[in-house]
Amino acid sequence: QVxxxxxxxxxxxxxxxxxxxxxxxxxxxxxxxMVWFRQSPGKEREGVAAxxxxxxxxxxxxxxxxxxxxxxxxKNIWYxxxxxxxxxxxxxxxxxxxxxxxxxxxxxxxxxxGQGTQVTVSS
Length: 123
Description:
The protein has strands at residues 3-7, 10-13, 18-25, 33-39, 46-52, 67-72, 77-82, 91-98, 112-113, 117-122. The chain is mainly β. The strands form two sheets. Strands 2, 4, 5, 8, 9 and 10 form a six-stranded mixed β-sheet that branches. It has a four-stranded antiparallel β-sheet with strand order 1-3-7-6, with no helix packed on it.
């Protein structure tokens, strides 16, 4: 059974950095797409960054370059490096996976999700 487990969240101050991790296990294919999503209170869930095992996706994450997704394929660990955090970056962060070929991006349907890790940013 596919399992995604996030960790690394916490409470930080504005301007701080955090690195979230997502450990993926029992994924039946060597090629898949991993995405980080954020769910903030009162807001719709939004995709933050995407990266496929083939290298496709918006690894640079957010347009301002503060968030970057990367992977340690050998360990099946996916990271979201978040720098210069702002209060609006707070929320529950989830990793989600899908496969079946095609470009890896946040708008694809994802059937496998982790339980999330909470990020709180204080100004």
